[in-house]
Design goal:
globular; 2 domains; 25% strand; binds S-adenosylmethionine; Rossmann fold; single chain
């Protein structure tokens, strides 16, 4: 992967296109982020990528300021910790980070804001490190997409969220129509609501989520 032209928008879109393309194995995705870790934050700076700010905004809406210090939040697909940083600025103090890329997590760790790092992929399989009903919020910014978080991982997010807690997903809107999610992800979200596993309390379109691309934020409350 060529990351020489740091910050160039076309180059960044090329990197993302490759990482989110069909047929990428989990190992290739992980290696791709390991290679990108050093320049990720310049390439995905907040002027271009607003996902972490948007996800933090949703976390703040569901947890009032007075309760933030005590709320336990898992940042899924934490990368270099952009979302954790935003949450910390808003008064959250109990933050865990999960990401399969060691290099991305190393960067996140240098922020000294996460109490626990989990170097794993999230999937439909239970994470042995995490007990059921643990988190007040399970949140992800930029982690949903082809070759990244599989639709079935919603079950694992639900399992590890406490009753009455929240699952917050912020992602590129067009990824909803990529093969891995099209007719699957939102159908699963609806089925989980119909079977009273959770309630969708928000679906919000985000303008200029990544450069000119639209994003979408989902907020669910565990029943
Ligand atoms: C585009 S980055 C987003 C990072 C960070 N959340 C942000 O907003 O800057 C996507 C991240 O998803 C991670 N990832 C990919 N597949 C994953 C999975 N199955 N479970 C958890 N994280 C995953 C990658 O390692 C990478 O750090």
């Amino acid at each position: 992967m060529d990351t020489d032209e740091i910050g160039n928008e076309e180059v960044v879109f090329d990197i993302l296109k490759q990482l989110f393309s069909p047929g990428q194995t989990k190992e290739e995705v992980k290696d791709g982020y390991n290679s990108w870790a050093d320049t990720y934050e310049t390439d995905s700076n907040p002027d271009r990528y607003t996902g972490p700010i948007q996800a933090a905004m949703e976390c703040c809406e569901v947890i009032p300021e007075a309760n933030r210090e005590d709320a336990l939040v898992l940042d899924v697909a934490a990368g270099t910790g952009f979302l954790g940083n935003e949450l910390q600025l808003k008064g959250f103090r109990n933050l865990h980070a999960l990401d399969p890329s060691t290099k991305m997590l190393e960067k996140a760790n240098t922020r000294n804001i996460y109490q626990k790092l989990i170097n794993k992929f999230i999937s439909e399989e239970p994470l042995i490190q995490v007990e059921a009903d643990t988190y007040d919020i399970v949140a992800s910014s930029g982690g949903m997409g082809q070759g990244h978080i599989p639709a079935g991982a919603l079950w694992e997010m639900l399992r590890i969220t406490r009753q009455g807690g929240f699952i917050i997903l912020v992602m590129r809107e067009e990824y909803l129509r990529h093969p891995e999610y099209d007719g699957i992800l939102e159908v699963l979200m609806e089925n989980m609501e119909k079977t009273r596993k959770w309630k969708m309390i928000k679906k919000r379109i985000i303008q200029k989520y990544f450069a000119e691309k639209e994003g979408v934020a989902f907020v669910f409350k565990k029943a």
